[in-house]
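Protein 1 of 2
SEQ + STRUCT:
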Amino acid sequence: MVTIAIENLAVRLGRREVLRGLSATLRPGALVGVIGPNGAGKSTLVRAMLGLVAAERGGVSLDGAPLSRLQPRDLARQVAYLPQGQTLHWPLTVERLVALGRLPHLGPMSRISAADSAAVQEAMARADVTALAARVATELSGGERARAMLARALAVGAPALVVDEPLASLDPGHQIDVMDLLAREAHDGKLVVAVLHDLTMAARYCDRLLLVDNGALVADGSPREVLTAERLRKVYGVTSHVDMTGPLPFVVPLERAPH
């Protein structure tokens, strides 16, 4: 199990302070949604959690160890990452693409083992891409490619999973499938962090939401606590209909809020 602690994190990209004074402790067994308007700093936050961007102040630790003390291979075994909008450059089959998720477990010049192959098959099944195993990944549709990339992240077998906009390019049915999968991974004991734009999906599936606006954490709690109509007006600039009373909560933006 993995716990990620973010302490007073500030990140500057060029002249712009993208994150400022952000703190949160993310523990296993939860699906944590990171939400907020475009440009709020969501993707920078998850990249900082993986040591892909440097902190100007504060920092991130993994089970108490600062990221700077961890070797990249060790970090990759602990936290699998699916970035948004990843481009494929090589005409690999889906099965070979998913097998790349096992690289953190392989030594130099070593070959994939039976256990690695089993992990690949399981990941493809969980992401519903087994039928695509022999297809060339560069020839897939956007939704098929997104699911293949998710399978690659699952194949790592890491105790934590960070996914940035995993619902992009997916039809409604596969959006539900992916959120069901992420929720199962979390409830089976993993820490799962997902950057999301769909607030209804965030309300229905996430155990906890981090609402980021202008680089700061403006709300942290359950969907019921975070997704209020007044807060959405302030952060997103929209009026909305929020219903958390039924078994399937929903959040419907209505129109731009008057200034």
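Protein 2 of 2
SEQ + STRUCT:
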Amino acid sequence: MELGFLKPLFARPGPWASVYIETTRATEDGAKVQELRERAIAGQLIDAGADAYTTRAVMDRLANEPVSGTPPGRAVFATGAEVVLDLPLAVPPPAGQATWSVLPRVAPLAGLRGDAPTCLVAYIDRTGADLELREGTRRAALGQANGKEGQGRGHRSIPADRHEWHYRNKVENTRNETADIIVDELVRQWPESGAELLILTGDPRERRAVHHRLPERILAVTVEAESGSRSAGASTAGLDREIAQACERFGQERLHRTLERFHIGRGKPGQHRESSVDTGPGDAAEGVPAVVDAARKHQVATLLLAPDASDGGRQVWIGPGVDEVAVQRGEARAMGVPRPEQARADDALLRAAAAADCDVLLVPEGMRGPAGGLGAVLRWTL
């Protein structure tokens, strides 16, 4: 999970109301059920000590949920009588949850928001390509890459004489030029799009021509889809299935690679390597003290978090700065924090990870991950 969307939460002081609520209305009494859910959320916030104005802001936001087209759940974060972030959830929360805490309660998002990679989709034909960005269920058009329209189109019959070679050569040159134009546009848009996976679909010959011209860094995360067409009104059902399968494979491969680096690079439980002699490409941290130390030094490349991690609920000491986090209160004061406050380790580490543009991967139950449920693959070691 990329964490950039969380940055608005950490730019403001708390305390925070954090709400996770199911929003499905599949039954005839769905509206009544939702009303009861919202009342329960209000009760939890009041019992936790949330101020009346922030509680009202949350309840007003929940009350405006549309009846149709709702996601399975929502996460709402509010402070100072204002809702700062309202997120759709790909998975409904197991039960309505509302907390009032110094930091927003963001750790559950790792398992509820979905971790599908952002995809750049190119619908290709012999005249160019339409580009689309997919982030979960959201889609946005990114424009077009247009080749030499009309040149080489169609399958008209030509005389079998000395001009035939020139005609076919012209068609092939036009196809190659169009492929080059599409590749140039993909390369230009790739960094700004934030995409992690490139999907090529459309006419088979043209998409292969594009595939063969891609630079290595993009080719490594490119998939060709057999379904899909640039034609207006074409069905997307088959393409949607192929993209979902490609995203699932991408996520599994990324998780396995990261866990392999973690297991190779970790030292003894609760420690990460301190000596430059004992380092390698997979250097890692495991346990709250080691991960907190790495986060404070901006060493974390990928934070690993297990569902219901026992270490996640441990209390750490934080200051207002995103990287002001320590295991001991005295340590936080030594860092220059005049009034350290306690917070959950998982939320404090996610705050630091978001500020440092780290990734977070959820380690599923049954898969061997960090002891205690918290670990990190490091960018660098001392």
